[in-house]
Design goal:
2 domains; 5-stranded parallel β-sheet; about 45% helix; 17 helices
Length: about 400
């Protein structure tokens, strides 16, 4: 059987106050973050995507519960801590729906706490802490211990893979980038080079083309494969060679990025049945494919960092211009003071400021497709407006930390 892993990134950030720091409160979170905007976006996406997509997947999973292994439906979710917090606050029934999946049909993927960029810190102790904290969030919320992880936005290099193994993960997801794979296929497990660690875990690679056929091209009328139907897509999967096919996409693909009128939700509902019509295809949990033997090494040194973002598939979506680098450097340097202060409120706010979205919104990419993606996700009118807002908040936060250290 050729296993297909169907995995979804589920994330909502804690958005910053666009109008600036709220100086009328002593609560640090309320000083910087806009819960009214968070609620608006979360409830909007819940109506368009979270509820209808999850209802369809849950119905399929329950319908196929008890069938033989090959005919079961399995799905994987990489859910950020910030999404869990907002779901509990605005739509706790979503947590109930995810908890209602049969145990044999769902798996949860680990990641950095609050979808942060701590994996890019020079000192990786905070990254290790965040991996453990997110694992606790998933265990406490869903009763499942993740065995496979993905760093934020599939950001990866050798040291991140080494840390994932040391923190007890049997596998880690990243992007199957051609500059590292070369002629090789993403449809296999790989591992770290021996000079990085002798105890490497499985490196599971996203099949970018097949994933983006849904995520980006589904409703593109200019595409020569438009319209994309579930039976056509299942036939493409059936023709794949290798040990696995890993499909990993933003959950908001279904009903938000592609509206219901495009047929995307019907496609999602039809896909499992169409896939399982092929006798040699079946769905798998990510922890199951992580057990497969690696066929070779995936060598991504630190200055060749991988991600799933933009055409470069590197870290430039967050660190590609001087203002992004300046902000990231300032946030990184705050770690020592935050840890010295050892105040839970301060630590929580600092970690939410590390969420990748903040730096993603101030990218200044000139490529048309990349520029459009960054603008689509941003709630700022312009990247430089975003830089001004974020810098104001970070500078004020630094002053608050310094003041508390002096007192």
């Amino acid at each position: 059987m050729l296993p297909v892993t169907l995995s979804f990134e589920v994330h909502q950030p804690h958005r910053l106050r666009v109008e600036g720091v709220n100086e009328d409160t002593d609560n640090l979170y309320d000083r910087y973050f806009d819960d009214a905007m968070n609620e608006h976006f979360f409830k909007d996406v819940a109506e368009n995507c979270y509820f209808p997509a999850t209802e369809k997947l849950l119905r399929i999973a329950k319908k196929r519960e008890g069938k033989d292994r090959r005919e079961q439906f399995k799905v994987n979710f990489s859910i950020s801590s910030s999404w869990v917090e907002q779901a509990k606050q605005y739509h706790p029934e979503l947590i109930d729906m995810l908890s209602d999946f049969p145990d044999n049909s769902i798996d949860f993927i680990g990641q950095a706490h609050y979808h942060s960029l701590a994996g890019l810190f020079y000192d990786k102790r905070e990254f290790r802490h965040q991996l453990g904290k997110h694992r606790e969030v998933i265990e406490d919320t869903f009763g499942v211990t993740p065995q496979v992880m993905t760093n934020t936005e599939l950001i990866y290099h050798n040291e991140i893979g080494k840390i994932a193994s040391e923190e007890g993960y049997s596998g880690i997801f990243t992007e199957g980038v051609p500059r590292i794979l070369g002629w090789r296929s993403p449809n296999h497990a790989y591992t770290q080079p021996d000079f990085v660690t002798e105890n490497g875990n499985s490196i599971l690679l996203r099949n970018r083309k097949l994933t983006d056929d849904i995520g980006y091209r589904f409703s593109a009328e200019w595409w020569n494969e438009y319209p994309l139907t579930a039976d056509k897509y299942a036939a493409w999967l059936s023709a794949c060679q290798g040990d696995m096919v890993n499909l990993f996409m933003d959950y908001e693909t279904f009903g938000e990025h592609h509206w219901e009128g495009t047929g995307i939700l019907w496609f999602l509902e039809s896909l499992p049945n169409e896939v399982l019509k092929h006798d040699h295809l079946g769905f798998a949990k990510v922890r199951e494919v992580a057990e497969k033997d690696p066929v070779g090494e995936f060598d991504a040194f630190e200055y060749n960092t991988v991600s799933w973002a933009d055409q470069e598939m590197d870290a430039s979506a967050w660190l590609g211009n001087p203002v992004q680098k300046r902000l990231f450097d300032r946030l990184q340097k705050l770690e020592e003071k935050v840890k010295e202060l050892d105040d839970p409120e301060v630590s929580e706010v600092w970690r939410k400021l590390l969420t990748s979205d903040h730096l993603h919104h101030i990218a200044t990419k000139s490529w048309n497709d990349d520029h459009a993606v960054h603008n689509y996700f941003s709630y700022f009118d312009h990247p430089f407006q975003g830089f001004g807002v974020i810098m104001e908040h970070v500078m004020d936060f630094q002053e608050q930390v310094d003041e508390r250290l002096r007192s």
